[in-house]
Specification:
globular, mainly alpha, 4 strands, about 450 residues, about 5% strand, Serine Threonine Protein Phosphatase 5, Tetratricopeptide repeat, 23 helices, Glutaredoxin, single chain, 4-stranded mixed beta sheet
């Protein structure tokens, strides 16, 4: 019991930033699919991030050039952060804008020297996108999660364009029209051409779109296979929260023939990922039925693996760890999973949330498989955590020491493993003292 108490208090600290790109971020892993078409053609420039060891130098640079400061807070272990690097920061239009109007800076939370930044600005989820005044004293905006190039561009435009000293000549010419169309919509003017225009403008300016998309598609239900409406459906099939994705899968062969199977498969997956967030908030019992129907109609490849990913996310998001454990245990017991990252993530969740010894012992087999494939620090530390949860303290210490050995070979930080060992040994010392002095 004492070991388990320590485990939840100590090992959880390691897992927090190692695995804490929570549901909103996991959903965002694929959102860039829906916002980028032929993206490679646009990637001939990248955001230039200012190289400095201190925050003070960044502020000095921003004040010298009278620019706002953009900070990308990331970590080496964060998949959504890598999506931002590969698909957003290197987008030509995005890079051109941010290079002109911001001093851009990166903070890597994998580096322990940046802990102060995490604590000062309460960064608990990754990626975190922070915007500061030139003197660094005022945080103008803080958002989290992966963004599409269009969404990320709007974030910067809204800030740079809202301060008179940073007005730029090429401010978005559609802003006035958006305000006009939105006003007409709010007054009850709902003819199809206005609904369609409003949907595109609302998307452009990062405003809610689902209600207007649904209203337009319902009015056009008998005309959804025109070229114009098929384009509309493709553009707005971003989530399960509007009807566009349903119309897309009903016409799946056209869309796969037109855009390619890989593109449409990715789009459907992105919509489902994004839909998990709404489903977990509402604890929607019909969610899986909708997902199963979409997967079947879309003829998605690797259906079993994708369903596992979605359902495990849903159970995590609803804190239904009992169902998560049973579902994951059955899946991994009946499928040959060889992805060490997936095995490590599942085992880390088991170490935190599962008490069933049969399942925990199975998790030790899974993490040993991950170590065999990829003998890395984090896999060994997760193994140590599982052993401690099982009450095998001596083996847990040995695994943690091996994690440190691997970390030294790789040149990575191993402070969590050191703290893990220190707390176990201090508990053993106190127990020995208590036994000697009853």
């Amino acid at each position: 019991m004492q070991a388990e108490s320590f485990f939840n208090a100590g090992f959880e600290c390691y897992l927090f930033m190692k695995h804490h790109y929570t549901l909103p971020f996991v959903f965002c892993l694929l959102t860039w699919f829906s916002g980028t078409t032929n993206n490679a053609q646009a990637q001939s420039e990248t955001i230039r991030f200012f190289q400095s060891d201190t925050w003070f130098n960044v502020i000095a640079k921003a004040q010298e050039e009278q620019k706002l400061i953009f900070v990308d807070v990331y970590a080496d272990y964060c998949p959504p952060c890598k999506i931002m690097d590969k698909e957003v920061f290197c987008h030509k239009t995005v890079a051109g804008f941010y290079n002109e109007y911001f001093i851009n800076y990166k903070v890597n939370l994998s580096d322990r020297s940046n802990d102060y930044f995490q604590q000062l600005y309460n960064v608990t989820e990754l990626p975190a996108l922070l915007y500061f005044s030139p003197d660094g004293k005022t945080i103008l905006q803080k958002v989290t999660g992966c963004k599409t190039p269009a969404e990320f561009l709007v974030l910067g435009q809204n800030l740079a364009g809202s301060r008179s000293v940073y007005q730029f000549a090429n401010a978005d010419p559609h802003a006035a029209r958006f305000a006009e169309v939105r006003d007409q919509y709010r007054k009850g003017i709902r003819y199809p051409t206005l609904l369609k225009e409003y949907a595109y403008l609302a998307q452009k300016f990062n405003e809610p779109i689902n209600a207007v998309v649904n209203e337009y598609l319902i009015k056009q239900e008998n005309r959804t296979r025109t070229d114009e409406n098929r384009k509309f459906i493709y553009d707005f099939a971003l989530t399960l929260d509007n009807l566009a994705i349903d119309f897309l899968v009903k016409d799946i062969y056209y869309f796969k023939q037109t855009y390619g199977s890989a593109e449409i498969n990715s789009k459907v997956k992105a919509a489902i990922f994004n839909g998990v967030l709404t489903a977990t908030k509402q604890n929607d019992p019909n969610f899986f039925k909708h997902v199963d129907d979409l997967i079947k109609k879309a003829s998605l490849p690797d259906r079993a693996e994708f369903e596992f990913e979605i359902k495990s996310l849903y159970y995590q998001g609803t804190n239904d760890w009992n169902t998560y454990a049973k579902y994951t245990y059955n899946f991994l017991s009946n499928n040959a999973v060889s992805d060490p990252a997936l095995l490590n993530e599942v085992c880390a969740k088991f170490a935190l949330h599962v008490s069933n010894k049969k399942m925990l012992k199975a998790a030790t087999r899974w993490i040993k498989k991950a170590i065999h494939i990829e003998n890395e620090y984090y896999n060994n530390l997760t193994y140590a955590g599982l052993l401690l949860k099982l009450g095998q303290t001596a083996k847990a210490l040995s695994a943690a020491k091996n994690a440190i050995y691997v970390a030294k070979l790789r040149g990575v930080d191993y402070v969590q493993a050191s703290e893990f060992i220190d707390q176990i040994e201090s508990k053993q010392y106190r127990k020995a003292m208590h036994n000697n002095n009853p």
